[in-house]
Amino acid sequence: MQQAIQAFLLVPKDSDFTIKNIPFGVASKANGNPFPATIIGDSVINLAKLEALGYFNGPLFSTLGSKVFDSGNLNKFVSLSRPYWKEVRSQIQTLFSCGSQLENNQEALAEIVTPVQDTKNHLPITIGEYTDFYSSKNHAFNMGSIIRGPDNAMQPNWYYLPVGYHGRRSSIVVDGTDIRRPWGQVKAPTAEKPSFTKCKRLDYELEIGAVIGGAPNNLGEPIKVNQAEDRVFGFVILNDWSARDVQVWEYVPLGPFGAKNFASTISPWIVSIEALEPFRIQLPEQDPEPFVYLKEQNHTSFDIRLEVLIGTEKSPELEHFTTSNFKYMYWSVNQQIAHHSITGCNIQPGDLFGSGTISGTTKDGRGCLMEYTWNGKEPLVLKSGEQRLFLEDGDVLEMRGFAGEGENRVGFGRCKGKILPALDEAYFQS
């Protein structure tokens, strides 16, 4: 049972940002510099100001000897360890609970708190490296069925290891960033040779991103699976945009490249494991039994409801059409970390791990359009009568995620992007 605490700041009904949450991000005011922040209800809280005014005075934080929240990202804080993260989160909850020393200190609150509508979100961390996995069994089976047929849907290695590939961190953007339709080489199934063209099969992927924190492991020393969770600072929603037609031609033999490197969008607030702990659930038993380096004492995930909504130029009001859940994972985040480091790879604070597309058990739980439309054979029909096989110019795609309800709700906010038209072909001729 969660502790009974109530914020003195206004928290609207069904807010993602109750006092039970306390996510971490980076915000700025108009024409101001970005600052580390958290959010309660519709109030953005400046962590740099809290630190400067001496409110982070717990037994761990007060002995650090240097500022942690004095830069425009969370990397210093992320590089600490879970006891420090928990102490800061607990102090914030205490400071903004009814009856606290801050409640009637209007002078301090004026410095610390800004209405969310007067702020802008930024990437919460300077991302080091980005790795994307493929860990939802429902998604893997559906995609394999589309490509190879249901009898040969699952590749032999899938049940033995968390399949993944290294992506590109420079094109990871924050919620609200427009996404330009990419160009690339495409080869139609009946064509003799490829063509250079605008992507015509633009897709999204519904994922959760794990932000890595803590001290890096030494090169050559893998992270043990039952210690891996201490390396997870928290989670974001992740949309790993995909150019499906480009991917089909380019991915042999080394896997995705340009089809996956043009943009990935994350939600701006990193939600902690502590906030999600009440929603931890057991994952199904794995068969075959994992190798010893992947064998967890507790094979778990979190009951996080994930939603996808779309708006079009004709019908801009967002329409919900997909519901999935982080519980539909086969390989856990801890197993992903253990496998990533088993060769001795040194994982750094600020790295980002994508879960891979998360799909439920029904059609309206499929985590991408390639799945939802069964590779363009079963259109998504919107209330307006419009149909989508893949994303079109002007479409707005929004993802949301939350656990719990009411005053116990813990959410991520939104992860949103609008599709801009591709550059004109003349761009490449000059």
Automatic annotation (TrEMBL):
Any one GO BP annotation for this protein: L-phenylalanine catabolic process
Binding site for substrate: Y134, R148, Q247, Y251, T357
Family: Belongs to the FAH family.
Broad enzyme group: hydrolase
Binding residues for Mg(2+): D240, K260, S264
Residues of the signal peptide: none
UniProt keyword Hydrolase present: yes
Associated pathway: Amino-acid degradation; L-phenylalanine degradation; acetoacetate and fumarate from L-phenylalanine: step 6/6
Highest taxon in the source lineage: Eukaryota
MF GO annotations: fumarylacetoacetase activity; metal ion binding
EC number in record: 3.7.1.2
Keywords assigned by UniProt, alphabetized: Calcium, Hydrolase, Magnesium, Metal-binding, Phenylalanine catabolism, Tyrosine catabolism
Native organism: Paramecium octaurelia
Catalytic activity reported: 4-fumarylacetoacetate + H2O = acetoacetate + fumarate + H(+)
This protein's record includes keyword Hydrolase: yes
Residue ranges of every copy of the Fumarylacetoacetase N-terminal domain listed in the record: 20-124
Cofactor list: Mg(2+); Ca(2+)
Protein name: Fumarylacetoacetase
Stretches assigned to the Fumarylacetoacetase-like C-terminal domain: 131-409
Active site positions: H139
Positions contributing to Ca(2+) binding: D132, E205, E207, D240
